[in-house]
Amino acid sequence: MYALEAKNVSKTYVNHKALDNVSIQVGQGSVFGLLGPNGAGKTSLIRIINQISVMDEGEILLNGRKIKPADTALIGYLPEERGLYKKMKVGEQAVYLAQLKGVKKQEAVKQLKTWFEKFEIAGWWNKKVEELSKGMQQKLQFIATVMHHPKLLIFDEPFSGFDPINVNILKQEILNLRNEGATVIFSTHNMASVEELCDHIALINNSKVILSGEIGEIKNRYKPNIFRIEYKAQNILDIDNTKFEIVSSENNKGVMAADIRLLNGSRSNDLINVLVPQCEIKSFNEILPGINDIFIKEVKA
Amino acid sequence: MNKIFLIIQREYLSRVKKKSFIIMTFLGPVLMAAMIILPAFLADWSEATHKNVAVLDESGWYYGKFKDQDNISFYQVHNDLDTDKEKALYEKGDLFLYIPKTELNLPVYAELFSTKQAGLNVTSYIKSVMKKEAENKKLLASGIDPNVIKSSKVDIKLSTIRVEEGGIEKKSNTEVEVGLAIFAGIMIYFFIFMFGAQVLKGVMEEKQSRIVEVILSSVKPFQLMMGKIIGIAMVGLTQFLLWILLTGIFLGVFQSGLIGGNTDMMSVLSQGGTSAQIAAAGTETVSADPYAMVTEIISGINFKIMIFSFLFYFLAGYLLFASLFAAIGGAVDHDTDTQQFMLPVSIPLIFSVAMSGVIINQPDSSLSFWLSMIPLTSPVTMMIRIPFGVPVWQIVLSMSLLVTGFVASTWMAGKIYRTGILMYGQKVNYTILWKWLRQKH
User: Looking at the predicted complex, does its ipTM rise above 0.85?
Assistant: First the structure.
């Protein structure tokens, strides 16, 4: 049973098809990366999951059953464009947002005190939001997103606007929440954080899902069959051009390096067998593509 | 349901706690009370200081004709202009009236000297006495006994009596009704605009600060819109009730603070239990015998209907306009874009205020009738008509149409709002609004 499943979701705005038959599956307790260029339809899908907008066709299943209005209490959502009531006091505002998610007032106050301690903004309870720095507002908004212990967390570009220290705190918190049993969906352009955090991804381009699956499996699917070897040798390597192709080579202070692609079904062991008599192998690694490369390759295709 | 209550609560409390609300709440009644009290107070105050007038009548025509009044005493002096003037003005601090001797004509010329402004009551009394004396002298000279003229004077008193259904006669006074009509119409207009603008501002603030997306992940757009509209309506009602209460208190304080004042005026002011009554009393303080007249007239006006219909037309009219304002706020990105949509919404309201003169003149004309039926103009127009007496069926019809109007406008606004509120960077025009309206959800 998936924590969240979107089945054949389509959505058309006045003059523009935002989502075209989109399906994704998000497993329980996974961190799911929703990728795609600007305007691909990520935010449209996220808004439909949050029941902010309504899909034209398809269905959304939450824990295996059709999503219903009361389920908003089970979801925590951090939109890409952050915003708070500027004139409202910090504590008051967080309590209000929690209450809208169905948390009782006393419970919300108690929870918030703990979160405020954790994020070192306890002294700001009675300040107005407009007095806070942008980073602090982001922290407050993050707290407001997670404080009702949602089973499903949706972060739209969570790291934008944070300094590197806070990005690390945030990453740690996201993993903590995952470890406590929450499922996390996040959309981002920051591919490094995808590699670091996500176990599954879906890539949306031009309103369609063009790629989805487990991150290792995807990387495998896109591997170019290139191995990087570092070696010491006196002579130039003598390699059968029908089986192997030297993509690049360099000489770095006596240590040679070369990227070699396997051709026509040859395997890595075949390459090692060819190399062993000719040189002293220092290292032998398969080059796997970064999500970044896959992203660019697929979107440009 | 619980969520909409939370929204109403936030909208209400965040506004009621604002400094501007508290200032307005106190300033409103002060201004309102001042409008009533000040003219009465000034008139009373100018008469409060007692004045002595020394009279040097060289013509000898007017000796003994100036009688002591409430606040004015006259005494005669017989020396010459300079010494008497000196004495009266600088030694005694009195006023000095000099009527020079005339050889041929009637002495119709006089000079009043004073160190301070003489005061309207003194000059008008002196003028009236001299005028009467001179006229009498002229009449006598032509052989007419002034008493004949006096006895032939008649005083016309015209009471307008409105016969209501069932033959109940009520004495009415147009001035009071005009006052009430204008007051009620302006108040409705003012309240609808003031609190409608708050809805617009509140919606735009949520959209511009982007908090709206967070809120909408918890509640339906319609709940958010209605929560805001209802919350602000309650702010309006609170302010209105506080104004009535505080105006009453201020008037009470003023009344007890004035000792030995004009009793008639005080009685009139004591009638001011409601703001509508206050308006009525306000127009009447200047008239000759206010107390009896005002009580009579006030008892002739059905205040239950006045207050009930004021609250109804305020609430229903507000709901109608507030939902339109909410739709505008949801549709546009920037304050400057609101203009093109605000104008058509405001025009009916401004038009009904502009037509108030015509409606007051002919409260039962077909123009008045139709303006008080059309939902966009009926709140102001009907409130102007009601003090003049409107058949019950018309009030019921107008109210039903207004309710239908605001249900329809709320439904429409809800559709525009839910699409517009998350739409940024869209150049909004009427074609787009129409598309949003027809968009299925």
Answer: no
- Rounded average pLDDT per 10-residue block, chain A, 301 residues: 92 85 93 90 92 90 91 91 89 93 92 88 88 87 91 90 85 91 90 88 92 90 88 80 85 84 86 87 89 87 78
Q: Which CATH architecture has domain B50-150?
A: 3-Layer(aba) Sandwich (3.40)
Give the nearest partner residue to A72 out of B218, B432, B441, using CB atoms.
Answer: B218
- The residues near A269 (Cβ < 8 Å, ≥ 6 apart) are none
The residue among A188 and B234 whose pLDDT is bigger is: B234
> What pLDDT is stored for residue B112 in this prediction?
86
- Give contacts of B 197-226 with A, CB under 8 A: 205-206, 209-220
Which residues, 6 or more positions from A272, have their beta carbon under 8 angstroms from its beta carbon? A281, A284
CA distance A168 to B63: 104
The pLDDT tens digits for B32-55 are 777 766 666 665 555 556 788 888
Q: B17 to chain A: nearest residue by CA?
A: A88
Closest CA to B285 of B307, B257, B262, B259: B262
What pairing do the DSSP bridges indicate for beta strands A244-252 and A2-13? unpaired
How many angstroms separate the CA of residue A159 from the nearest CA in chain B? 17
Instruction: Report all structural domains of chain A as residue ranges with CATH numbers, in order of start.
Output: 2-220 (3.40.50.300), 224-300 (3.30.70)
Q: Which residue of A has its CA nearest to B216?
A: A52
| Nearest partner of A31 among A179, A212, A139, judged by Cα | A179
With 70 as the cut, is the pLDDT of residue B274 above it?
no
Reading the block at residue A85, the tokens are 């009531």
Cβ–Cβ of B435/A14 closer than 8 Å? yes
Any chain B CB within 8 A of the CB of A162? Answer: no
Chain B residues near residue A69 by CB distance under 8 angstroms: 220
Q: In chain B, where are the structural domains located?
A: 15-42+173-438, 50-150
CB contact under 8 A, B217 and A81: no
| Pairwise CB contact (< 8 Å): B217 & A79 | yes
Phi, psi of A161 (to 5 degrees): 90, -5
The shortest CB-CB distance from B217 to any of A75, A81, A86 is to A75
Question: What are the structure tokens assigned to B219, written together?
Answer: 């509640």
